[in-house]
Write a structure and sequence with these properties.
globular, about 25% strand, 14 helices, seven-stranded mixed beta sheet, alpha/beta, five-stranded parallel beta sheet
């Protein structure tokens, strides 16, 4: 691997090589800026090493596992190989890139534009830059459960280092991580239970999405227990107790959330503002309260996922390179759950939309691709502001949900009204065909209501407007 020579002065210092940090570092380097990229542990951050990449690789390879399954150790080993190959590629690519000086070590803020780097194998040294970007990510929250020892407790940090598939796996937390890993280990032959404190799993999604995934998990043989909290563990019997009973568990995966990696960064000493969760407070450009200091990803109050960290990384990059160019609206929050069925959602969708919002629901099982693929769970829920056609949010349930969601992301980003989707053509048959009946439903519900609201005098103009809208 090629490293660049020592420098103590750069245009920017990026601390952390996850999605947000790499996005900023890569963007600045392509614009001729000198970037010092500091990584404490492993290149690629949580996503590459203990998050998105190994988890989706595990879901993929577990789904292809021959039946009857063996002990699953070959799948776990393959996931590690694939993960390590990607990390090595990222290290070679970014570490050898012109404009990026990749270094390993602990970073600490000394003041505006000043950072101390402490490598493991040599004395600390200092660097300066006009811009410092904090992208240190987050770590899993661990629970203190009576009787549960460290060798029985797993988080995403230990999960992908398992060499054997546990016979019985309990998962505390029914969010995206818990639901996805329940599917993966069930496919590998584990008896899986989910214990969720909320009244439903995936509480951040619409209830219909939560209920659909919960039913699918149950039909796969996964026990889904909601409204219950873990209370203790008996190693002798291998039983995890919870407030509604108990489940069998040789090992327990804790997936209840994450906390920002801010310890040892010197944030309090230099006066960086934090929110109530310990995350760095930023503005709509990603700036902190200190001049020249930025934050992106899980360590910031705008983080929460790899794709959102990348989106905010682009905003930070643009703001550094073009500080006076308007940055536009903040990106809408996007969520994805890669269970079976998949769920993808964007924007804000309350359980009951307000009166000025048209909620459109389409059962996608009538779409021909769902018929050919024998898919039972396909649904689209879109919230659109009446008359203006502004897309406020969407939820997709079914195969390739994330890809089907993309047009809604573009519409919300570019301000494309929903009626402009009319006549959009997708290859036939495809899962994206579910969008067409949603547009038809919106036009029918909205335009047919206009005469009642505005009177018969508007009928002639309405007919012309309808023709214009549908022809665009």
């Amino acid at each position: 691997m090629a490293f660049h020579s020592d420098h103590d002065r750069h245009d920017a210092i990026v601390i952390g090589s996850g999605s947000g940090g790499l996005t900023v570092a890569f963007g600045l380097a392509t614009q001729g800026r000198s970037v010092l990229l500091v990584e404490r542990h492993q290149m690629g951050g949580d996503c590459t090493n203990t998050g998105c990449i190994p988890s989706k690789s595990l879901l993929h390879h577990a789904g292809r596992h021959p039946a009857p399954v063996n002990d699953g150790s070959d799948v776990l080993a393959l996931v590690r190989v694939r993960r390590d190959e990607l990390r090595h590629h990222e290290e070679e690519h970014f570490g050898g890139m012109d404009g990026i000086d990749l270094r390993y070590g602990r970073a600490e803020l000394l003041g505006p534009g000043r950072v101390r780097i402490t490598p493991d194998d040599r004395p600390p040294w200092e660097a300066e830059a006009d811009h410092v970007v904090m992208a240190t990510g987050s770590s899993p929250i661990r629970l203190d459960i009576p009787g549960l020892s460290d060798d029985r407790m797993l988080t995403n940090l230990e999960l992908f280092e398992l060499e054997q598939v546990p016979d019985r796996l309990a998962i505390i937390g029914g969010g995206a991580v818990g639901a996805e890993m329940a599917v993966a280990f069930c496919r590998l032959g584990s008896t899986v239970s989910i214990v969720e404190a909320a009244e439903r799993i995936l509480p951040g999604l619409l209830p219909v999405a939560s209920a659909t995934v919960a039913r699918s998990l149950s039909e796969s043989g996964i026990a889904v227990i909601t409204g219950a909290r873990a209370t203790g563990y008996d190693a002798a019997t291998g039983r995890l107790s919870h407030s509604a009973g108990s489940v069998d568990a040789d090992q327990v995966l804790v997936a209840v959330g994450r906390q920002p990696n801010t310890e040892g960064l010197g944030l309090s000493r230099v006066g960086v503002e934090l929110d109530g969760t310990g995350r760095i407070v930023t503005d709509r450009r990603g700036r902190t309260n200190l001049r020249g200091l930025w934050a992106v990803g899980d360590v910031a109050d705008t983080g929460g996922s790899t794709h959102m960290a990348g989106a905010w990384g682009r905003r930070v990059f643009r703001s550094i390179v073009h500080p006076r160019v308007p940055i536009g609206d903040e990106p809408p929050v996007v969520r994805g759950v890669f269970t079976e069925p998949e769920v993808a959602a964007i924007g804000s969708q309350p359980e009951s939309p307000p009166p000025d919002v048209e909620r459109i629901t389409v059962d996608g099982t009538a779409v021909d691709r769902a018929y050919t693929d024998e898919v039972d769970d396909v649904l689209l829920v879109v919230d659109v502001r009446r008359f203006t056609g502004t897309v406020l949010g969407a939820t997709v349930i079914g195969p390739r949900a994330g890809e089907v969601l993309l047009p809604f992301s573009l519409a919300m980003r570019a301000g494309v009204p929903f009626h402009r989707f009319y006549g959009m053509v997708a290859p036939y048959p495809s899962h994206g065909d579910i969008i067409a009946p949603a547009v038809d439903q919106y036009l029918s519900a909205t335009l047919s209501d206009l005469p009642r609201r505005f009177g018969s005098w508007a009928n002639g103009r309405l007919q012309a407007a309808i023709a214009t809208i549908t022809e665009r």
